[in-house]
Amino acid sequence: MQDRIHNFNAGPAALPLTVLEEIKDSFLNFAGSGMSITEISHRSKWFDDVINDAVERTKRLLKLDDQYKVLFVQGGASMQFCMVPLNFLSNGESADYINTGTWSTKAIKEAQIQNKPITIVASSEDKKFCYIPRDIAFSQDAAYVHLTSNNTIKGTQFASLPDTGKIPMVIDMSSDIMSRPMDMSHIGMIYAGAQKNIGPAGVCMVIIRQDLLDRVPENIPSLLSYATFANKNSMYNTPPCFSIYTIQLVLKWLEETIGGLEKMDAINRQKAGLLYDFLDGSSFYRATAEKGSRSLMNVTFRLPDDGLEKTFVAKAIENHLGGLKGHRSVGGCRASIYNATGIAAVNDLISFMKQFEQTSG
Ligand SMILES: *Cc1c(COP(=O)(O)O)cnc(C)c1O
Questions:
Q1: pLDDT tens, 106-139?
Q2: What is d(CA 49, CA 161) in angstroms, rounded to the nearest whole number?
Q3: pLDDT at residue 1 greater than cutoff 70
Q4: Best substitution site from 175, 176, 327, 336 to test ligand 1's pocket, by max atoms within 8 Å of Cβ?
């Protein structure tokens, strides 16, 4: 087998090596059960311990108070685009949406398909989503404000969240959940497809405040209702046990190996700083997101032409640096540097980029 590469994939993405090793070591006989985690009952004490520990670690890491419930829902982040308006706009209420790229565009579409009244209060589409809109005026009576905290494709991120006053924010944090501490005071709900920063595909973490849960209507399908998940500790039906188990181990790694989200944030800033400083000092590579809007998770950049970008991605893989191709909808290059991608990977990438420029520039 080839050695493991430095993985810059956007999602599914790198997981901490120690987590993968722990899964491997426990795979045939989980916690002394004589069975694999993929074979045990979700109604067993073994799995109860897993899901409860994942919930408790999430609460500790994000310093959530008792108003918040932590849920695990299938259907990915994309299912949330539909569930959010279905659950919170049942009585003719309207919501505000901020459009910062592909994912928020899809979230808007799913609300519109259901004929829910929504207002797009800000958009960065005028400049192909290369920046984060500022100074947004929200509707007085909005039921919630929906936004995407980190735009995985365009490489932009809210450096700080907007002030929505009394209106709760509902945030798609798929690609930056657990990357930094959060001020939860205006946040009604967070959701995140696990496969970017906290686990494998197949599950979406939902963190929801009680007052939003109280708004969920009764006449919607059970599996599309947050109340169902909240009332049954995410086990109304069979949950994706393996994905939740992996999340539990990633959260344990965050708490016990990294030392919490302040520490994680410092490391993430260091990694992104190294890469952006290098890009800004280069006349060969060019970062595509505007300064002040740049993502600490997905660093998007271009080379002088498409042909060089293709060669760059191919040569990078020969050098054990994978996943550097930009999203198919925008082209270019992208280095996703989520929590599990360490500083050594970033340093190796920069060395390779210097070398590539010397031989091809
Ligand atoms: C990847 C991604 C999604 C889609 O996630 P799925 O789990 O594939 O549905 C949604 N929002 C953001 C910000 C993403 O990065």
A1: 999 999 999 999 999 999 999 999 999 999 999 9
A2: 34
A3: no
A4: 175
In this predicted structure, the answer to whether residue 16 has a pLDDT above a threshold of 80 is: yes
Residues 322 and 316: their CA atoms lie apart, in Å, by: 7
Q: How far is the CA of 204 from the centre of ligand 1 (A)?
A: 9
Looking at the fold, whether 266 and 245 belong to one and the same domain comes out as no
Count of structural domains, the chain: 2
Pocket of ligand 1 (CB under 6 A): 11, 76-78, 103, 148, 152, 172, 174-175, 193, 196
For 224-255, write each residue's pLDDT tens digit. 999 999 999 999 999 999 999 999 999 999 99
How far is ligand 1, taken at its centre, from the CA of residue 6, in Å? Answer: 22
Average pLDDT over residues 6-19: 98
**Alpha carbon nearest to ligand 1 atom 7, residue:** 76
Task: Yes or no: say if 107 and 157 are a contact pair by the CB < 8 Å rule.
Answer: no
CA distances for 186 relative to 11, 105, 148, 162, 167, angstroms? 28, 23, 15, 9, 7
Q: Is the pTM of this model over 0.85?
A: yes
Residue 13 lies in a domain: no
